[in-house]
């Protein structure tokens, strides 16, 4: 009954008779400001005073290095492995090894393509839903501005190929666009979630498609659209709520709020990078023998140039 359940009081990590819990964290590598916030949250959560020894491995944007890191952490006999995969594939053997070694694996942020019985739980965002939210925002914006019938040429900046965030968002976006026969994708290119590639890919696109032939840019994260803005400025193109091209991105970084308030970005679909608290709760539950769910979705909103000023002070990354 309720009173017999071991109550974990939030914020008080349970006492571990045998010292610190050994946590292996396999991170993707530097890609975006979202990633920095995501990493910092883990570093601030899994600290010694809360009973953890965090072994942090930077994947350096290399899926192979991430796989090798999992074998290394298994070798070190850590108590838990948290993996933030770059891509979904390639994990079967390493996960099998972790299972054989009795080390629970928690997957966070993007997903991995293995049977869900092979890992304890997944915590992250509904990326497909995020993609649909971007289209819904665009549909509402066009309706409010009497432009629902306008033919639109759309550019999509894609995230890392094979990453759940990119796959899910792309599906949601593509489904939404397919529902409008007056909308056309004139370019859809991968810029790996980075600002530098966002700029260089947009420069290439502008070499083939005149800026005045582009009506909408949908970027699968904020940093790529920040880079694209530099390319648009170099081309003398007009964009954002104060300009012509409709600009939509994902992550809702603090800098995206500034860009929305500056009339350079129309909307950013929030993707919550602060996953460490939820991951820690799962580990505390497991330590206390409390069953955990297979999936935990983060809560996320949509922000745009009409409400960015209202929320910017609450943003923590
Ligand atoms: C989303 C995450 C993506 C972000 C990018 O959960 O995987 O990777 O949207 C980040 O900014 O680089």
TrEMBL record:
One Pfam family recorded for the sequence: Peripla_BP_4
Entry's Gene Ontology molecular function annotations: carbohydrate binding
UniProt-annotated location(s): Cell envelope
Annotated Gene Ontology cellular component terms: cell envelope
Residue intervals of the Periplasmic binding protein domain: 23-275
Record keywords, A-Z: Signal
Family under the similarity heading: Belongs to the bacterial solute-binding protein 2 family.
Name assigned to this protein: ABC transporter substrate-binding protein
């Amino acid at each position: 009954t309720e009173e017999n359940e071991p109550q974990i009081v939030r914020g008080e990590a349970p006492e571990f008779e045998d010292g610190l819990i050994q946590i292996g964290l396999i991170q993707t590598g530097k890609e975006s400001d979202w990633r920095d916030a995501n990493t910092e949250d883990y570093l601030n959560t899994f600290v010694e005073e809360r009973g953890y020894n965090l072994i942090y491995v930077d994947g350096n944007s290399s899926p192979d290095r991430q796989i090798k890191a999992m074998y290394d952490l298994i070798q070190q006999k850590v108590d838990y492995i948290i993996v933030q995969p770059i891509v979904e594939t390639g994990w079967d053997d390493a996960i099998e090894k972790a299972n054989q070694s009795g080390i629970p694996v928690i997957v966070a942020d993007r997903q991995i393509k293995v049977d869900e019985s092979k890992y304890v739980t997944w915590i992250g965002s509904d990326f497909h839903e995020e993609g649909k939210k971007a289209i819904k925002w665009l549909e509402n914006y066009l309706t409010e501005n009497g432009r629902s019938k306008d033919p639109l040429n759309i550019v999509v900046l894609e995230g890392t190929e094979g990453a759940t965030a990119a796959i899910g968002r792309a599906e949601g976006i593509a489904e939404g666009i397919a529902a409008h026969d007056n909308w056309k994708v004139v370019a859809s290119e991968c810029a790996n979630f980075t600002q530098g590639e966002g700029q260089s890919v947009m420069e290439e696109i502008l070499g083939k498609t005149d800026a005045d032939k582009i009506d909408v840019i949908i970027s699968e994260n904020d940093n790529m659209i920040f880079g694209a803005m530099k390319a648009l400025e170099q081309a003398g193109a007009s964009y954002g709520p104060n300009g012509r091209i409709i600009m939509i991105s994902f992550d809702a970084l603090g800098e995206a709020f500034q860009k929305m308030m500056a009339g350079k970005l129309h909307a950013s679909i929030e993707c919550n990078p602060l996953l460490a608290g939820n991951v820690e709760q799962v580990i505390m539950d497991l330590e206390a023998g409390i069953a955990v769910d297979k999936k935990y979705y983060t809560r996320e909103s949509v922000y745009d140039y009409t409400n960015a000023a209202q929320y910017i002070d609450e943003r923590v990354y």
